[in-house]
Design goal:
The chain has 440 residues and is of the alpha/beta class. It is built from 16 helices and 15 strands. Bound molecules: beta-D-fucopyranose (FCB).
C-alpha cells in the first residue's frame, strides 16, 4: 500500500458550467445565449436534448451546495451566464440574474467553500453573435465590461477569476468544425476569433485588476499532450508538430508574448488582424493557470493512433492514460515561466446504473480519478506548483453535442425527478479530501 499525502493547503474541488447545469434558460429576465439558439435547432444535439432544464441548478443550488458540503469540497468552480446578467450582452443589466449569483456565492461562503468563478464557459449572448460574435472586436470590449460588472458585485467574496474556459474549443469546435454553438464552419474567421478571445482575455484581466487589485486572475486551457507512438525520429517529429500546432497556440502568446511559428502554415491566408499592443496585452502576468486534462494523443508519422492496444477508453472515446498528465505538467513547467497551476477539470464519462439498493457503483471513474490524483502528486514532487484539483464534474450534466448521454458526475442526476445520488466515486473522493491522502 502507498500513501500519497497532499499539502495541507491543497484545494480539493469540483467543477461545473452554467449552461450544463443551470436550466431556467428563459426565466427571471435571462437573455438568449448561442447555446440556447443552437440546441433548439433540430439535429444539432443527440436526442434533441437541450439545456432548458438541465440539472435545474438555478432552483436547486441550495441542495447542490449541501451535497458539496457532504463531500467536504474546499472549492467549487462554476461559470456565470453572461446573458443571465446582461440579456443582450451589454447595456441593460438584469438584476435578478445578478441576484442569483450573489445568493450562490453567499451560500458557498457560508459553507466554507471557496468559489472559483469562470466568466465565459461558452454561452455568448445571442445578441452579440448577431453583431458578429467573436469575429467582431467590439465583443472583446463588451466582455471586459461584463467582467467588471461581475467583479463589482462579487469581488468582495470571490477571489479567483477565470476569463475563459478552453478558448481553443470556442474557436475551433464552434466556428470551424461547427459541432458547438454557434455552429459555424468558417476557416476564414477561426484564427481571428483565436486572437480576439486572447485580446478579450487581456482586456478583461486589465479591467478586473483596475476594479479590484486584490483579485487573482487566470485562464483555463485544455491541453492534450502528444506522445510519439515510438522512438522513431519520424514519430517523435510528428508528435512535436502536433503539440506545437495546437497546444502552444495559446500557451505561447500567453506566456511568451508571441504566436508559435509552427501555426503560421496552418493559418495560411487567414491571418488575423493583430493590432499594435495586442501581444503585450495578451502576455500580461497572470496569477494562475488552469489546466483541463482528459487524455493524450498518441501520434505517429502516419497520423494519430485511434486505438492503443491494451488501453481502456471512456464513453467519449478518450484513452485513459494518467501518466501523460505528469509528463504534461513537467513539460509546460520546463518550457514556460508559469504562475501556480490548478487542475481545473479532470474526470471521465462511463455508463452508470443505479442499483436496486439505490447505490451507484462507478469503480472505473474512481480508478480514473485516483490515478490522475497520484500522477499530479508525483508532478508536484518533481517540482511543479499545483495548488488544487477540480473534478469534472460535480453533477452529471448536459454534455454539449452529446446531450445527456455522457455522465461525468461524481453525483448522479435522475433527469426525470432531479434526484441526486452521490456515486461511490464521490464517497471515495470525500474520504480523499478528509484525509488529504490518496491510498494506492
Ligand atoms: C471540457 C469542457 C467541459 C466538459 C468536459 C467534458 O472540454 O470544458 O464543459 O464538457 O470537457
Amino acid at each position: 500500500m502507498m500513501l500519497h499525502k497532499f499539502p495541507p493547503t491543497f484545494l480539493w474541488g469540483a467543477a461545473t458550467a452554467a449552461y450544463q447545469i443551470e436550466g431556467a434558460w428563459n426565466e427571471d429576465g435571462k437573455g438568449e445565449s448561442i447555446w440556447d439558439r443552437f440546441t433548439h435547432i433540430p439535429g444539432k444535439i443527440t436526442n434533441g436534448d437541450t439545456g432548458d432544464v438541465a440539472c435545474d441548478h438555478y432552483h436547486r443550488y441550495r441542495e447542490d451546495i449541501a451535497l458539496m458540503r457532504q463531500l467536504g469540497l474546499k472549492a467549487y468552480r462554476f461559470s456565470t451566464s453572461w446573458p443571465r446578467v446582461l440579456p443582450t450582452g451589454r447595456g441593460l443589466i438584469n438584476p435578478r440574474g445578478l441576484d442569483f449569483y450573489d445568493r450562490l456565492v453567499d451560500r458557498l461562503c457560508a459553507a466554507n467553500i471557496e468559489p472559483f468563478l469562470t466568466l465565459y464557459h461558452w454561452d455568448l449572448p445571442q445578441a452579440l453573435q448577431d453583431t458578429g460574435g467573436w469575429e467582431n472586436r467590439d465583443t472583446c470590449h463588451a466582455f471586459a465590461d461584463y467582467a467588471v460588472l461581475m467583479v463589482k458585485r462579487l469581488g468582495d467574496r470571490v477571489r479567483h477569476w477565470t476569463t475563459f474556459n478552453e478558448p481553443s474549443v470556442i474557436a475551433f469546435d464552434g466556428n470551424l468544425v461547427g459541432e458547438h454553438a454557434p455552429g459555424l464552419q468558417d476557416p476564414r474567421i477561426t484564427y481571428q476569433i483565436v486572437h480576439h478571445l486572447l485580446v478579450a482575455h487581456g482586456l478583461a484581466t486589465q479591467a478586473i485588476r483596475a476594479a479590484n487589485p486584490s483579485l487573482e486572475v487566470g485562464i483555463v486551457l485544455n491541453l492534450w499532450p502528444a506522445d510519439p507512438a515510438s522512438e522513431d525520429p519520424a514519430d517523435v517529429a510528428a508528435a512535436n508538430r502536433s503539440w506545437e500546432r495546437s497546444e502552444t497556440l495559446f500557451l505561447d502568446p500567453l506566456f511568451k508574448g508571441h504566436y508559435p511559428v509552427a501555426v503560421y502554415d496552418l493559418v495560411g491566408p487567414n491571418m488575423p488582424e493583430i493590432r499594435a499592443g495586442d501581444m503585450a496585452l495578451i502576455g500580461q502576468k497572470l496569477d494562475f493557470l488552469g489546466i483541463n486534462y482528459y487524455s493524450r494523443n498518441l501520434v505517429s508519422a502516419e497520423g494519430n493512433i485511434e486505438t492503443v492496444p491494451g488501453s481502456e477508453y471512456t464513453e467519449m472515446g478518450w484513452e485513459v492514460h494518467a501518466p501523460a498528465l505528469r509528463r504534461l505538467l513537467n513539460q509546460i513547467h520546463r518550457d514556460y515561466r508559469l504562475p501556480p497551476l490548478y487542475i481545473t477539470e479532470n474526470g471521465a464519462a462511463f455508463p452508470d446504473e443505479v442499483g436496486p439498493d439505490g447505490r451507484v457503483e462507478d469503480p472505473c471513474r474512481l480508478d480514473y480519478l485516483k490515478n490522475h490524483f497520484i500522477q499530479t502528486r508525483l508532478a508536484m514532487q518533481d517540482g511543479v506548483d499545483v495548488r488544487g484539483y477540480f473534478v469534472w464534474s460535480l453533477l452529471d450534466n448536459f454534455e454539449w453535442g452529446h446531450g445527456y448521454t455522457k455522465q461525468f458526475g461524481i453525483i448522479c442526476v435522475d433527469y426525470e425527478t432531479q434526484k441526486r445520488t452521490i456515486k461511490s466515486s464521490g464517497e471515495w473522493y470525500a474520504e480523499v479530501i478528509r484525509s488529504n491522502t490518496v491510498v494506492a
